[in-house]
Design goal:
The protein is α/β, with parallel strands linked by helices. It has a single domain (4-269), classed as Ribonuclease Z/Hydroxyacylglutathione hydrolase-like (Metallo-beta-lactamase, Chain A), CATH 3.60.15.10. It has helices at 44-49, 65-68, 84-92, 94-104, 183-195, 215-228; strands at residues 4-7, 12-16, 22-27, 32-35, 56-60, 77-79, 125-126, 132-134, 139-144, 153-157, 162-164, 173-175, 202-204, 235-239, 242-246, 250-251, 254-255, 263-265. Helix 5 runs antiparallel to helix 6. The longest helix is centred in the C-terminal third of the chain and has 14 residues, at 215-228. Bound molecules: zinc ion (ZN). Residues 62, 64, 148, 167 line the site of zinc ion (ZN).
Length: 271
């Protein structure tokens, strides 16, 4: 179970696991931070050790298994505690997610559930909205953006004019779980990201193309309005055995109009 990496600039390295999920190693002059920890398929701590000599702590952007999967390997782990119920839920359903991943990732068919990394059982240290982490010559500021999960956070590096949208805003934003917020709350989070738009030039995410231009944010905001005004396609699709709805109908996973940015939501989140 191998990881690969790509150095994006002097400070940031993208690490990708066999499921295609990315996390980011951010190195300052004093210490390094790992933003998320992928799915837990392979020894991420050992892999990170080949990339940096610095002490590494972990920030989790939210509590989903594909971001917290290797966090238990590290001593110093932070997460917004509004996501503790999300973490607990995904820990409890970890075998189900593993079996779902096995269906689409050939390399996972050769391993058993016992071979993946242990679950994060200890409670991570708290992160509050606007909290700053000092890495030396660069800082990470945490922006709370509830939606995908109640405690979703976007890390932002002012010195590099870089923000990590993570799962907060992407090509198929999921508002699909009981713990996801409704669309109105989510729209307010996007307005916050829009208000600070002149403070960042680079956007990174953990899935798919891993990056995008600023148009994506406008397109996802437009999706919120379509849902709130009942003008969306409301096209049903099945995710993890549950029927949810595509704001704009997708064909082969992409919006039928060719644009990027979509919301997949449970019907009770539409308000
Ligand atoms: Zn997620």
């Amino acid at each position: 179970m191998k990881y690969t990496h790509e150095k994006l600039n002097e400070h940031i390295t993208r690490i990708t696991d066999i499921a295609g999920v990315a996390c980011y190693l951010v190195e300052g002059s004093k210490r390094a931070c790992l933003l998320d920890t992928c799915c837990g398929y392979g020894d991420l701590k050992e892999y990170v050790r080949t990339l940096t000599d610095q002490a590494v702590f972990v920030i989790l952007t939210h509590g989903h298994y594909d971001h917290t999967g290797s966090a238990a390997l590290f001593d110093e782990v932070y997460m917004n505690q509004k996501d503790l119920p999300v973490l607990e839920n995904h820990n409890r359903r970890r075998l189900f997610f593993f079996e779902e991943d096995q269906k689409s990732i050939p390399a996972l068919k050769e391993i058993t559930f016992e071979m993946i990394n242990p679950l994060l059982e200890k409670i991570p240290s708290e992160i509050k909205d606007t909290q700053m982490f000092d890495l030396g010559n660069i800082h990470i500021k945490m922006i709370e953006v509830p939606g995908h999960t109640p405690g979703m956070m976007c890390p932002y590096i002012p010195e590099l004019k870089t923000i990590f949208f993570g799962d907060a805003c992407g090509t198929s934003v999921l508002l699909h779980e009981e713990t996801s917020t409704d669309v109105s709350t989510y729209k307010n989070s996007l307005i916050r990201l829009k208000q600070m738009e002149d403070q960042y030039d680079v956007i990174y995410r953990n899935h798919g193309s891993y990056t995008n231009d600023k148009q994506l944010l406008d397109n996802v905001m437009e999706c919120c309005d379509m849902i709130l005004h009942h003008r969306d396609d409301h096209h049903p699709t099945i995710m993890y055995g549950k029927t949810i709805y595509e704001t704009i109908e997708r064909i082969n996973g992409k919006r039928k109009d060719g644009k990027e940015g979509n919301i997949l939501y449970a019907s009770e989140k539409a308000g």
